[in-house]
Amino acid sequence: MTQPVGAYRACMSYAANDSPRPTDSHPMTPDEFRQHAHSVVDYIADYLRDIERFPVNHSVKPGEIRGQLPSHAPEAGESIDAIMADMDRVVLPGILHWQHPRFFGYFPSNSSGASLLGDFLSSGLGVQGMSWSTSPACTEIETLALDWLAELLGLPAHFNSASGGHGGGVIQDTASSATLSVMVAARERATAFASDRHGLHSCEQRLTAYTSVDAHSHVEKDMRICGLGSSNLRLIGVDSQRAMDAQALAAAVAADISGGYTPFMVVPTLGTTSTHAFDPLRAVGEVCQRHSLWMHVDAAHAGIAAICPEFRGMHDGLEYADSYSTNPHKWLGVNFDCTALWVKDRRDLIRSHTTLPEYLRNAATESGAVIDYRDWHVPLGRRFRALKLWFVLRHEGAEGLRARIRRDVALAQEFRGWVVADPRFEITAPAPLSLVCFRLRGSDAANEALLARVQTRGRIFITHTKVDGRFVLRMAVGQTQVQHRHLQEAWTEICACAM
Amino acid sequence: MTQPVGAYRACMSYAANDSPRPTDSHPMTPDEFRQHAHSVVDYIADYLRDIERFPVNHSVKPGEIRGQLPSHAPEAGESIDAIMADMDRVVLPGILHWQHPRFFGYFPSNSSGASLLGDFLSSGLGVQGMSWSTSPACTEIETLALDWLAELLGLPAHFNSASGGHGGGVIQDTASSATLSVMVAARERATAFASDRHGLHSCEQRLTAYTSVDAHSHVEKDMRICGLGSSNLRLIGVDSQRAMDAQALAAAVAADISGGYTPFMVVPTLGTTSTHAFDPLRAVGEVCQRHSLWMHVDAAHAGIAAICPEFRGMHDGLEYADSYSTNPHKWLGVNFDCTALWVKDRRDLIRSHTTLPEYLRNAATESGAVIDYRDWHVPLGRRFRALKLWFVLRHEGAEGLRARIRRDVALAQEFRGWVVADPRFEITAPAPLSLVCFRLRGSDAANEALLARVQTRGRIFITHTKVDGRFVLRMAVGQTQVQHRHLQEAWTEICACAM
C-alpha cells in the first residue's frame, strides 16, 4: 500500500505513533441509564402533572439563557444531577409551555402519553429506517399506520398503499418539507424530468403554481427552495369566508397559459393558519383536472378533524387530489415531529428523489418489492417515527381520538359563543372547528395592547394574525389537558386585559 | 355574520346541530404516563443491556411485518400492555439492531444514555423552537452547544456565533438537508437572488457545482431538488488515496467558465462514505477562493474525529470554507437525528429561507437581536434537539468524547492489522480512522458470497461498497458498547464465512 499524503497523513498520526493512548471511555452503562431515565420520567410526569404552576409564557430577554451558561464545553464530564439542576434553573424558565392547558397560541402541537412512549422506544432502539432492509418494521409499520390513518380520515382509497394502485403515505418532519417533496415531483412531471437532469434553466417551460392569499408561507418558501421563484406563485383571492375563489383561480391559470407560462400545481388549504378557512376542493379540483395540474391539499391542522365524519365535508372533491398532507403533531396527540403525507401515485415522487449508490444497494431494494422511504423526501436517515403514531392510534383508538376532537371543537365553539355575546368583541372569521378568531371592536392599537397585556401577564397564551389588514386575535383550542375551566379562565383573563 | 357555504357548511354541521355529542376523551393522565414510562425505560435498558442475545440482522421477508398486524386501526383503545407485547412479537424481530456492539455496517449511528435522557426531555417538554420567542432556551442552547462543539472540533473562529462575525451553527436532521440549505444559499449568492424571486429559468447563469466521484449521493440529490439538475454537478476524479484531485477540479472549473457556465459551489468531503477518503481542503479552497465559489465541507462521519487534536490534520485549509457539516448522530453518541451545520456568514442562508407572515411576527424577531432558526432550513417547526447534544457534551465531557473516538480508532486499526496479516485478504483503502475497507483477494463473486454468508448468519453486520468497480467490504467501528472482544468475534466470523 502506498504511503498516505497531505491531509490524510495528518489523520494517520494517531495510528502512526503511540501518543496519546486512548484512555478509558465511560459512556453510561444500560443500568446507569435505567437509573437516570427513571428520574427523568418522574421529572417529565411531574412537569406535565404540575404544569399549571408555571406561567404559560416566558419573560426572557435575548441572550439571557446563554448568559447563564458557561462559554465552553466542560473538559471533564459532569453528573446528570448537575445537568438536571440546569433544567430547572435555566431551561424551564426559558420556554413557552406549549403543553400547558392554557396555551392557545399558534396551533396545539399537542402530545400524549402513548405518543411519548412510542417516541422513547424509537430513540431507545436507535434504528435507521432509510431503506426497508435497514429495519423492515420501521418501514412496514409506517406504511400500515398511514393506511390506517387514511381510512380513519376518510381519504380516497387511491391514497392507501393497500388499494392496489400506486398510492401510499410517508411521515415527514413538517408540512413545509412535505409540500416541497410533492412540489419537486410535480415540477418534474411537468418538465418530463428535464429539470431533474439538466436544471430548470434548460427548460422552456416557465412553471407557475397557485395557492390562496391565506395559504401558509411555506408554499412560497418551497417555490424558492426548488428553484421556481416566489414570483411564479400566484396568490389567488378569497371569498367572504376566506376560501380560495375558484373562478379567480381558473382565470389566473388561463391568463398564465395565454402569457406563455406553464401552470403545474395548485395548493388548496383545508384550515388556513390565520382563520381555518377551507378552500373548495371540488371547484379547485375541476380546474386542476382541466389543465392536468398537480393538486396538493395542505390540511396541516384542520385535516385531523376529518376523523369525525361530521367534519368530513371539507373533503368534498378530494378525489381530484394528487397528494394530501395533515399533521398528527398538530392535533392528534402525536408529539412533534410527525407530518403525514399521502400521494396518489408515488412513482413521480420516488423518481424525482431516488438515489441508489452502491453502498445502499441490497437485495430487497433490487427486488422492487419494498418501499425505501429515503426516496420519498430529502433526508436519507430516518427515525422510527411510526412508533409514536402507531401507539396513539392503538391506545386511544378511533373512538378516543374522535372524542378528543369533538371535545376541542365543543370547547372552542362555546368560547365563540361567549365572544359573540359580549358587545365589546366581534368574531372575525367563521372558523367552525377549534380556532376562534376575534377582536375588540375598535382600533388595531387597542387589540395590540390587549394582546401585549395578555402575553406579559402570562396566565394564558394566544397569538394574532391579520385578516384584510386588520389585527385579529387567535384562540386555538386543543391542548391534551385542556378542560372547560381553562376556557373560562382564558375568557376571564381576556376580559380583564380588555379593561 | 354571513352564513357559511359549500365545504365549510359541512364542517359546521357539528356546531349547527346536537349530534353526535362529544363523549369523554381519556388520554393518559400524567400519572398513568409515569407508570407506563417506567416500564418502557426498563424495556429499553433491558434491551440495551441484553442486546447481544439478538442476532444483529433480521431475516424478514417483504410484507411479513405488516402481515402480522391488523389491516385497520382499532375502534376502541388498546392497553399499553397489548402494544408492548407487539414490540416483542413483531417489532424486535423486524429490525436491524443498529445499537448492537457487533453492528459494523454503514456508519455507527451511535447513541448514549445521556443523549437519550436529553431526547426524552425534549419529547416530554414538547416545545416548538421555530422562532426564538416560541422557546428561547431551545434556540440559545442550540447556538451555544454548536459554539462549544465548533471549538472542540477546532473549527475556524468564523463559524462561532460568538466570534463577532456573522457565523453560527444550526442543528438539522441529516447531511442531505444541511447541504441542500447551503446549496440554496450559494445558488442565490451566485444569482444575486434573482432565482429566489423569478426562478432559475429566468437566470442567464447556468450554474455548475463540483464534488468528487466518491462524494455522498445526497449532493446530486440536492442539485436535483433545488432545480439545478444532476448533469450540472461535475464529479471530479480522485487520486490514489481516493481524495479529490484539485488540479482536475481547477481544470473542470476553467472549462466550464470557457463553456459559458457559472461555477458556484464545491463540496469536498472529509471521510467519504465508501472509504473515508479526505479531500484536500487547502488545494480545493484555493480554487474556490480564486473563483468565488461557495465551499461546503461534508464531514458527516469522520469530521467528529477532529475533537482529538491528533486527527485534526484533515482540517488543514478549512479557513476557505463557507460552511461545514458533521453528524453528532453518526459518531458522537447523540442519537439520530442531529446534524450540525455551521456557516461563515448566515445572511445569505437566512435571506434565501426567510418568511415572516403576520402570524409569526413578534417583538424579538423585529428587534433583530435574536436567531429564528426556522430561517436556516426548510422546516418551520423544530424539536428541542439541542438538549440531547448538550447532555452528551456535558455528561461525557471533552475528555470522555475524545476517549471514545480514540477507542474506536484503535479498535479499527487493530482489526486492520489482522486483515493485513492474513494473506487471504487485502486492504483496499487507506482509511486511517474507524473504517476498514478490505476484500478477499479474488473475484467480486467470492466477496459477494462472503458478505451474503455473514449477513444471513446474522452474528455480525457489515456492508459493502465498490471502489474502482471492485466489490469491497466495509467494517465501520463505533458502536457505543463495542469492546475488543466484539472485533475479535467479527474477525473470527469473517474468517469462518471466508472458508
Explain this structure to me?
2 copies of one chain form a homodimer. Chain A has 499 residues and is an alpha/beta fold. Chain A folds into 2 domains: 127-383, Type I PLP-dependent aspartate aminotransferase-like (Major domain) (Aspartate Aminotransferase, domain 2, 3-Layer(aba) Sandwich), CATH 3.40.640; 399-497, Aspartate Aminotransferase, domain 1, CATH 3.90.1150. Helices cover 42% and strands 11% of the residues of chain A. Chain A has helices at 6-11, 13-16, 30-49, 64-67, 80-91, 113-125, 136-152, 175-190, 194-198, 218-225, 246-258, 281-291, 328-331, 346-351, 363-367, 386-421, 444-457, 484-497, and strands at 168-172, 207-212, 233-236, 262-267, 294-298, 323-326, 339-343, 425-427, 435-440, 463-467, 470-476. Chain A has a 7-stranded mixed sheet, sandwiched between helices. A 4-stranded antiparallel sheet of chain A has the order 8-9-11-10. In chain A, α7 (136-152) runs parallel beside α16 (386-421) and α11 packs parallel to α12 (281-291). The longest helix of chain A is centred in the C-terminal third of the chain and has 36 residues, at 386-421. The first copy, chain A, is globular, with a radius of gyration of 25 Å. The termini of chain A are far apart. Mean pLDDT of chain A is 93; it is low at 1-24. The interface between A and B is large, with 213 and 213 residues.
